[in-house]
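#structure-requests
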Amino acid sequence: MARSTGRPAKEPGRAKQLLNVFTMTRKVDSSLIWWMLLAFLVPVLVGVVLAIVATEGVFGRILWIVLGAVTGFLAALIVMNRRAERAAYNRMEGQQGAVGAVLRATLRRGWRGSEIPVAVNPRTRDAVYRAVGKPGVVLIAEGPKGRTQRLLDEERRKVTRVAPNTPVSVLRVGPDDDAIRLAQINRSLGRLKGKLTRAEVLAVSNRLESLAGGVPVPKGIDPTKTRPVRR
């Protein structure tokens, strides 16, 4: 009888992870390789020009070319990462629970939030999520404005009751003209002006967590398995 070693499965190396990201992204973004090639070649060409024009010695010329190649490689990785992130957001766009996945994977430091919605319409599966930071409490609606307004109003009343005098802002992710896209959530949170201290953020978050627990994540997306690529 074979004995189990008890060793955890070895995680793929950095090169393997990059290759996986490239392969998955290229499946949905056919122009990826051309953008990466452009990002690589531009610094290389700049290095070659500087090596010819600005340097006389052989060592100096080689150094400029190598520097251009390294810079081009890093630029290509940045392009791949950003387009992979865009592809991940596009795959999640319109799915129920996508806002929760974004909050869980990319919520910036200083913010407290959860992938579990604080309110869900059981019939339409529209949801409202909550994030707490220095700007106050932000309610993020997932779904059309006409269907989520009532949920937002109810959650705003709860916040006002538990944490009076705390600023409450609203973001909408959905099909409406004034709504934002998934990729704009963190950017929109960052544009809000800070009004609370760190201690106040913690106190407000703890008060809100004392409310009834969150509701199940809507079917359609698993926030524990879908994570947009970080920059």
